[in-house]
Amino acid sequence: MIIHLKENIDANKVEELAAQSKSIALKTGSYARLITSSSIKELPSFLDDYTDEFFTMDSDIQLASKDYKSDIKEIDFDTFKIGGTTNNTVLIGGPCSVESEEQINASAEHLISMGLKTLRAGCFKPRTTPYSFQGMGMEGLMLLVKMREKHGLKIVTEVRDSTHVQAIIEHSDVIQIGAKSMYDHGILKACGKQNKPVLLKRGFGTTLQEFVQCAEFILSSGNPNVILCERGLRTFETKTRFTLDLCGVAWLKEKTNLPLILDPSHAMGHAFGVPDLARACTAMNIDGLLVEMHPNPKVAKSDASQQLNFEEFKAMRNSLDPIANAVGKTII
Length: 332
Ligand code: PEP
Ligand code: MN
What we know:
Structural class: alpha/beta
Number of helices: 10
Order of helices and strands: EHEEEEEEHEHEHEHEHEHEHHEHE
CATH topology of the largest domain: TIM Barrel
CATH class of the largest domain: Alpha Beta
CATH superfamily of the largest domain: Aldolase class I
Oligomer: single chain
Number of strands: 15
Strand content: 15-25%
Number of domains: 2
Radius of gyration: 20 Å
Bound molecules: phosphoenolpyruvate, manganese (II) ion
Distance between the termini: 38 Å
Largest sheet: 8 strands, parallel, barrel
CATH architecture of the largest domain: Alpha-Beta Barrel
């Protein structure tokens, strides 16, 4: 249940009511909301005098539910917006990892040449073996900062664990929480206590309910700026790296009020399928795409097989415009 308290109830009283109702208190300006478990279906009587309105909810997808707020949340990337009433599909491109200044600068320049605005690259990489490249860490993050200053691009980069969450929050424009970190409550809550947009990837073995409940950790900690990202599930299939859950995307669009970004690169695992998938995703009227691109994918230090080279990326980018237009969107 989401309870809107009356305006100007003092902070101590809000805390007291939250404790009494075993709920989370969420303050926005002079208003406070209490969020209880969705199993509570009747307003506790001690809240009668303090409550403006309340919403009973079907499940613990609450703040993110269209049953609570039907309008899609608008997310501000500072120089542009996605979601809300905008028609933007943001194409976020860049290598899997920052590897050198030359590599990330070439990627940034390629994005600019295609009229794009948002660069992605990992610095703290969550790898599946300790014997592979783990990312450039802070040095990589500072190179991304340099790319923002030099090219005016917005920076999306991933937080892997709590040791560097504050550094990512400070230096990135959009904080990516990767599939392997979707359940890290330390990261979720740290991202909830600040206001930058958070791109939350779905864990590859998680249900839609579990995924959106993780978004609820961020939302209920105070940050409304959450973007959901589908990036493929582990299935019995081994020919592709993961299986992109487009049915899940349709469900998220129908049921949640959060913008959606799709990542065909990690789902497919092979460059050859990525442009087709990117076109299919765009046709689903989504808010963004995350596509890996590298100046020379063959020598990439992570995810080499799935990264597009510059030519492939450009051809894909150009092919997306008519598809985006057909569903009322513009690629930016
Ligand atoms: C990435 O974006 O490079 C990445 C590691 O993605 P995921 O968390 O989806 O595996
Ligand atoms: Mn990657």
